[in-house]
Design goal:
By secondary structure, the chain is mostly helical. It has one domain. It is built from 11 helices and no strands. α8 runs antiparallel to α11. The mean pLDDT is 82.
Length: 256
Amino acid sequence: MLMLESILNPLHTNWFTWWITVLCALVTGLSKSGLKGFAMINIPILAYLYGGMASVGILLPFLIFGDTFAVIYYSRNAKWKYIKILLPWALLGVVLATFVGKYINDDQFRDTIGVAILVCLVIIIYKDYSGKKDSFTDKKWFSTSLGLSGGFATMIGNAAGPIFNLYLMSMRLPKNSFIGTGAWFYLMLNVLKVPIHVFYWKSITASTFQLNLVMLPVLLVGAFTGKQLVKLIPEKAYRFFVLGVIAISAVLLFFK
C-alpha cells in the first residue's frame, strides 16, 4: 500500500491536492486539443497548492504532453509564417525572464499583462464588428511586443496563452489552423524552457516529473474529449468562444 502511494503520489501531498492536480491535468488536455485557454485556470490553482515556482515546474510537462497531442492531430493545419514571426521575439522574452524574472514583482507584471490583453481584445472585437481592414494588429510592432511579452510571461508563470492566442485570433485563422499553429508554437517554446527549469530554476525534479507521468492518462482523456468537442463547434462560434476565454484568462491574471 505504501509503495503504491509513493508511486501515485511522489510529492506526498494530501489527497485533496492530488485530486485537484488530476483535474488540472484533465483541463490541460481539453485546452490543448482545441478548447483554447481553459488551462489558464490551472495557474492560480497550482500556485496556491504548490507555491509559485514549484507549480510552474509541475505545469510545464503537462503543457508539453498536451502540445504533443495537438501537434499530432493538427500539424497539417499549421501556418508557419506566423510561427516564424513570433518565435524569435518570444525566445528573447524567455531569455530576459530567465535572468531578470526573479527581480520582477510577479503581481505587478500579471496586472500589466492582464490590462494589455483586455485593451487589445476590445480593439480586435471592434475591428471584427466595424469591418475595418487597417489596424495596428497588422503592424510589426504588434507582433514584436506580443512576442516579447508572451515569451516573458510563459517563462515567469506559463501565462502566455491569452497573449499568443490573441495574436493568432487577430490574424483571423480558421479553427484548425488556429489550433495547429498554436500547437507547434507552444511545443517548441515549452520544450526549450525545460533545461532552464531543470538545471537553473530546479523547478522540475524526478518527483514532479513522476507526478506528471502518473497524470498522463487523465490528460489524454481530456485531449481526446476536447478534440471531439471542437468538431461540434462552428467556425464563428469557435472564434467567439476563444475570444471569451481569452477575456476570462486575462481577468484571472488579476487574482493572486
